[in-house]
Design goal:
Elements: E1 2-4, E2 11-12, E3 19-22, E4 40-45, E5 50-55, E6 61-63, E7 66-68, E8 73-76, E9 81-85, E10 88-93, H1 98-107, E11 112-117, E12 120-125, E13 134-137, E14 144-146, E15 159-161, H2 166-175, E16 179-185, H3 196-210, E17 215-219, H4 231-239, E18 252-255, H5 273-281, E19 284-287, H6 288-293, E20 319-320, E21 333-338, H7 345-353, E22 359-361, H8 370-382, E23 386-389, H9 396-408, E24 413-418, H10 422-435, H11 444-452, E25 464-468, H12 477-483
GO biological process, one term: DNA repair
GO molecular function: ATP-dependent polydeoxyribonucleotide 5'-hydroxyl-kinase activity; double-stranded DNA binding; polynucleotide 3'-phosphatase activity
Main location: nucleus
Length: 490
């Protein structure tokens, strides 16, 4: 039923499935000429514990304090208010059994259901079947935007529809036979900036506002499921589409993080995450402005590092000078590795140097102090053996103790410099973290290394500098396939 809150204490009884007209009539006791005779139509849906409302009047009203205009629809839950005109002729939707409606809203037992797979929250509606044509969207920027002025929203109530064309466009896609699926990054859960219950309420509120059925996949951690990595899409195809195979030629993804560069009055995007997600998934991509208004796609930059290109490098030119001799196990020598964390130093040392019988000391990974590391190097040299110091060694001060030790033993010291860029190192780090979640070193070390980096030179006391270009090697083809995906969006 609807209870009047402003024009006297009376109720309007609603019948299941029957349309009830609210406006300037005897039923509502409204005489305001700004209110049309058929201002609002409502229809009770007991199955979901809601009331379906469509605004048909000339002048706007409000539902739960948010404006509603002509031809727009909303869903009402127990306790929701309707203002036929802004601030006037207010009615409240009430259920005879409000506990059921409360469950439908807060716990989504009747209207929608939530499930969790690994770190992904999945919102499903019973009315969203499997479909071969998928209209996929990012959430923030493409469907809603924050009203607090922050790119990343912590307040679950601070949102509004991003564009006027969002609702009619989504409804058009449904009429065309598409299934609407939202893919969103919500890593604020793992950082304890967001509460899962708040996010669930927000998705239900957005669904009510749009009046368009959709599925939602939310990645809650920085892992394989977080965009631009394709984990959420793979999960959807595997278990979220009722076994129906997706037709990628007829499907697409819309996002606001398109990597667009600043041009005229157009601000640069904060990342290219959504465009790279579409590339990883093999989907056509449109920016939000393209999709809703047909605007041309401006210049953009997707990523400085493109993982597939590293496999095109000539394997004969990975080490320079190319005729550099590798260390000999029984000839005292120090090989000092240098480069970003996750630049491939440890992999190269274990794959190509350790089989030669050379001792490998990974003092940063093994949590050794500098004094402990120098002691191990000294012990190895006393035994007339070659030793590899596997560490980042980013500047002159960090390299000097090893150069001094080599001079004390009158043995050569060479620097093997791994020239992976900061972006490639971050890509490698994320790949390694996905393959080994127990990896504890934070990726912020890569940024710190960049700040203190001083390239090595022979003037420091090295006998030579050997330059290495990183090319990954894989024993499992599936690992190589994973590596080729874009991992970072900025």
């Amino acid at each position: 039923m609807l209870r009047s809150l402003s024009d006297g204490n009376f109720i309007i009884k609603l019948k299941e499935g029957e349309e009830t007209i609210l406006g300037r009539n005897l039923l509502t006791r409204v005489r305001d000429m700004r209110c049309s005779r058929k201002h609002v139509s409502v229809k009770l849906n007991n199955k979901f514990g809601i009331c379906e409302l469509t605004h048909t009047g000339r002048f706007k009203g409000k539902v739960c304090g948010k404006p509603v205009h002509n031809s727009e629809s909303r869903w009402l839950f127990h306790g929701d208010t309707v203002e036929l005109l802004t601030g006037k002729h207010i009615f409240q939707f009430q259920r005879l059994n409000p506990v059921i409606a409360e469950q439908a809203y807060l716990k989504n037992l009747e209207y929608g259901s939530w499930q969790q797979y690994d770190s992904v929250l999945i919102y499903n509606l019973q009315s969203v079947p499997g479909n071969s044509m998928i209209a996929a969207f990012d959430l923030f920027g493409s469907i809603v935007h924050g009203t607090s002025g922050n790119t990343y929203q912590r307040d679950m109530n601070a949102w509004a529809i991003s564009y006027d064309e969002v609702i009619p466009t989504l409804k058009k896609h449904v009429e065309e036979g598409y299934k609407i699926v939202i893919f969103t990054n919500q890593s604020g859960f793992s950082k304890k900036q967001l509460l899962i219950d708040d996010f669930k309420k927000k998705i239900v509120a957005i669904n009510r506002f749009l009046c368009v059925p959709f599925q939602c996949f939310a990645a809650t951690a920085n892992d394989w499921y977080q965009k631009p990595r394709p984990g959420m899409w793979e999960l959807f195809c595997r278990m979220g589409n009722a076994g129906v195979e997706v037709d990628k030629d007829k499907s697409f993804f819309v996002g606001s993080a398109a990597g667009r560069i600043e041009e005229g009055n157009v601000l640069a995007d904060y990342s290219s995450t959504d465009r790279l997600f579409a590339l990883n998934c093999g989907l056509k991509f449109w920016s939000s402005a393209q999709h809703y208004y047909g605007h041309p796609d401006p210049d953009y930059q997707v990523s400085i590092f493109r993982p597939r290109t590293v496999f095109n490098r000539n394997m004969q030119h990975l080490m320079f000078p190319m005729d550099t001799p590798l260390p000999v196990a029984d000839k005292p020598e120090i090989i000092l590795l240098c480069g970003f964390p996750a630049a491939g130093k440890t992999f190269y040392a274990k794959r190509h140097l350790e089989p030669l019988g050379v001792k490998i000391i990974s003092w940063e990974d093994d949590n050794l102090t500098l004094e402990q590391c120098l002691s191990l190097v000294e012990e190895t040299l006393r035994n007339d053996r070659a030793v590899v110091v596997d560490a980042t060694n980013p500047n002159v001060d960090s390299r000097k103790p090893f150069i001094d030790l080599a001079n004390d033993f009158n043995c050569p010291i060479r620097c093997f410099l791994f020239e992976a860029t900061q972006e490639q190192a971050l890509h490698n780090y994320i790949y390694r973290k996905i393959k080994n979640p127990e990896c504890s070193r934070p990726h912020s070390l890569i940024d710190f290394h960049k700040m203190i980096l001083v390239r090595p030179s022979v003037e420091e006391g090295f006998h030579s500098i050997v330059y290495f270009t990183f090319v990954p090697e894989f024993d499992d083809p599936a690992d190589e396939t994973m590596y080729k995906y874009y991992m970072i969006g900025k």
